[in-house]
Write a structure and sequence with these properties.
This protein has ten helices and 13 strands. The protein has 337 residues and is of the alpha/beta class. Strands 5-4-1-8-9-10-11-12-13 form a nine-stranded mixed sheet, sandwiched between helices. Strands 3-2-6-7 form a four-stranded mixed sheet. The mean pLDDT is 96. Bound molecules: adenosine-5'-triphosphate and the ligand O=C(O)C[C@@H](O)[C@H](O)C(=O)CO. The site of ligand LN3RO5KU has 14 residues, from strand 2, helix 1 and helix 8. Adenosine-5'-triphosphate binds next to helix 8 and helix 9. Pathway: Polyol metabolism; myo-inositol degradation into acetyl-CoA; acetyl-CoA from myo-inositol: step 5/7.
Length: 337
Amino acid sequence: MSEITFNDEKPVDFVAVGRLCIDLNANEINRPMEETSTFTKYVGGSPANICIGMARLGLNTGFIGKVADDQMGRFITQYLKDNGIVTQGVTTDRTGAVTGLAFTEIKSPTDCSILMYRDNAADLLLETGDVNEELIATAKMVLISGTALAASPSREAVFLALEYAKRHGAVIAFDLDYRPYTWKSPQETATYYNLAAEKCDIILGTREEFDMMEQFGGNPERSDRITAAKWFDYSARIVIIKHGKEGSIAYTPDGTSHTAQSFPAKVIKTFGAGDSYAAGFLYGLMQGWTIERSMEFGSAAASIVISSHSCSDAMPTSEAVHDYMERCKRGEITANT
Ligand SMILES: Nc1ncnc2c1ncn2[C@@H]1O[C@H](COP(=O)(O)OP(=O)(O)OP(=O)(O)O)[C@@H](O)[C@H]1O
Ligand SMILES: O=C(O)C[C@@H](O)[C@H](O)C(=O)CO
């Protein structure tokens, strides 16, 4: 068992707060975007992907975010509904803001990048008045995502969501989801990330994301243990540092570390790994599994998503993850990278 317990009387398992966007993933892969003609449209944005992942795994989920009053915004809201996600916390911008677009370039399984169109993006216009306290009050877990801290008024909305989550006893997870393009300076970024992380029970990020938060000093060796230890003086009960294909490590306040290896994958593109890992890991915790078992499940979910063309649409069911793990054990799946 992990140290984390959930209030079983609450009807909603999981609410994510933050960005709802569109991914346009290149259809002609293994080439630069200059040579790509067609893209497939998917719902995107890290917290959206995680929430869709949790819904696919069978949990009751809801979302708090803002969409543009356009075809893309309506597509996103409908997709969430079709996946059984409660959308009462999804508001619509009325100022003419647009939907953030992420064009993904897949040059090779290990060389992927994202070209962002995020000027006047609706998701960053989420206001404090849009944060649905009623929905948060019904949730066992609330997840925030770092990109929503990049600008006002979304930044204040996230801090209010944290306040509501604390008030109503939700477990709070923070996926660092650091995207440099939405921020003005590294110093500003680290300031707000650190302020938010102080309030969270579970913090998930890559080594590079934690490096960004530690830019004011204190961990020159880039030690995962030192990174994690800092947060146990605040609210954290689990800190996970992800290392891509090398796997991941979790720390708990008693100083114990827990590791997970990655699963083999026929990688198409690497983005979406972190989101599917988060969904699988948090789902495992909510089933009362150990941290190791939850990390293993998250790692297998990540391998499935990176072996697929999309992030959101490829989020697996629980049966699909278990099946994948079995097939890996039998040696039926080997890595291509
Ligand atoms: N090439 C890979 N092969 C197998 N598993 C992988 C690979 N890359 C990532 N993973 C799995 O996904 C998990 C999270 O990956 P990573 O550390 O890259 O997170 P991330 O950087 O947040 O992902 P993203 O690329 O979505 O932003 C890893 O712990 C691992 O289990
Ligand atoms: O909004 C982004 O930054 C891109 C995401 O939409 C995309 O789905 C992704 O990178 C997943 O991690």
